[in-house]
């Protein structure tokens, strides 16, 4: 027997005569209708994306404001979630800013490259990023089975010549690939390839992973791009008849992302922190001229989406309570 | 044109007249045959498992030996990979030992419960683990989309009464479930449910995740168990006709793991560190009696499989070089 009793409570007497009393709001939140479930899931995970091409005006915020003001921090994280990239301006031009920004959220993710990492021209570089060469479009760290979800990069000093940044919306590229070259799309979503990384930094390491270049969920929605040619293993674990289709598919995907109409190009200014979705965006940089008297120096850090979404939900609760 | 030249090198002249010279060993390692690929992948990932039931004699190592001796450390990690659980005895009975053990590998994984966490009876507990109640079999932290791969728990002091540990081989349970109740197996591998966790510890948090209770890869091999009834959301994001099959499947799975013939029961001794695969094993503990003069205290830490496998590969290289 079900009846509404006082205070908008719902009383249920079960066949074994046990009685339960539920708050009606609590019950409503557990409604099994498709519409109710969809709106709750959207509120929890905010999976809507705004796909971009070269015409994107990168959303911009103020570094100090984001640290101090909850509304500014919420706007920052909402744009990061939806657009995939936000520039924060006005940070001090010294190390430690990406760590402060990570603490604003919760904590950063330690990796073999350290708590934070310095992108600059290094002797005996253990990573292509630590040279002045061009970096073609990639996602960071596919050699980890769970690559970092979010990346913060702070420009402490910029090269006098070169070093421009390039980004592409990988989720948008997947959509285009599926339309223009369904065979390549099928190959890259179904073929696992190996990534590898070894060296010594925070400590010594020898990583090996297997990844789909494009991760899609069981409903076919793209979840993550795993692509970094510098750490893709030269061992290809495929039957020989899949080798050429794989390279053809990979070329179709990289050709697509290198089209000028898909790529956003910008120059990081000293004191600027670029924050972006490393599961979604591919990023690169043009080569630059390294001079003894003017060195390029970026500091970076990783976070994961679980921690970012946790902070986003908490900020939303606080800001909505006050508005 | 392909020919073997001096020093066992292979020279290839391509149709465009470019010449490449390969080391024959390098080429052999890239052989596309099924057998060659299988053996290389096994060497890289060591995916063979030894499934256990209640008769398991938990592999045991010496804590100080593992810290100091590479061969002992390698044996520890190989057993952890293959059997899923290893006990290390002889650790000092004070905090800091799980962190030392994690540094032996690389680094530990920080979570909202801190770098390490103290399992003891706490006032205003933010987690059921921090009470003296029974903990039914579970994996840790399914509320994170990438739950920690490995768990270290150090017993600093044990309860005078109760507090026995229980573990079950989740991969073995999946095998049994698939055989005994294929419908339940299909439900738990195809239905995503929500996990949630909120509170304040290392900092404030509000986590929400969607997971399959049993994660299988595209070839149907089990990869990970995600199950913790204490953090399973009371909101169930399913069409109403899937609700009862889901609960029925979940009950079949938990009934299976609670059968005495499947469960290993043991008592942690002070100075012992249990290290286990959190993707594979479900663990629990019986309730205990908390007395003001004799408190139970465990310290725990998380790591991920990428870092553990990295250390395992490096140790194997060192040990094999010297034998």
TrEMBL record, chains A, B:
CDD domains: CAS_like (cd00250). Pathway: Amine and polyamine biosynthesis; carnitine biosynthesis. Gene3D superfamilies: Clavaminate synthase-like (3.60.130.10). InterPro entries: AlphaKG_dependent_hydroxylases, TauD-like_sf, TauD/TfdA-like. Pfam families: TauD (PF02668). Residues 60-302 form the TauD/TfdA-like domain. One of its GO terms (molecular function) is metal ion binding. Keywords: Carnitine biosynthesis, Dioxygenase, Iron, Metal-binding, Oxidoreductase. The keyword Protein biosynthesis does not apply. Its cofactor is Fe(2+); L-ascorbate. It comes from the Eukaryota. GO terms for biological process: carnitine biosynthetic process. One of its GO terms (cellular component) is mitochondrion. Coiled coil: none annotated. Belongs to the gamma-BBH/TMLD family. This is TauD/TfdA-like domain-containing protein. It comes from Pleuronectes platessa.
